[in-house]
Amino acid sequence: MFNVRCRDEGVISSSLKIKPPVKTREGYRIAERASRAFLSARIRETYRLALQSQLQSELLAEDYQKVTRLSYAAAENTHAKTKLS
After folding, report:
1. Which of 6, 51, 70, 83 has the most crowded CB, counting CB atoms within 10 A?
2. What's the distance, Cα to Cα, between the start and end of the chain in Å?
3. What is the mean pLDDT of each run of 10 residues along the chain (85 residues)?
């Protein structure tokens, strides 16, 4: 996968590269961290969409909906727990 190779090689694709509005050393460091964060977010989203597509094609519609509801409920529960901490 292209994005994973970019991350592993320490390369940021031009579509994710942020140009700092403040042209200082600190501005460039902040922009670099933000670009790497966007790359990580893109990798997570790509994996999520691939898994979703695979589940949707392999499960019956009713089972897919049940799995989706359960995973969203688990995510909500985790979010509520971390929010209270």
Report:
1. 6
2. 36
3. 94 95 96 97 95 92 91 88 75
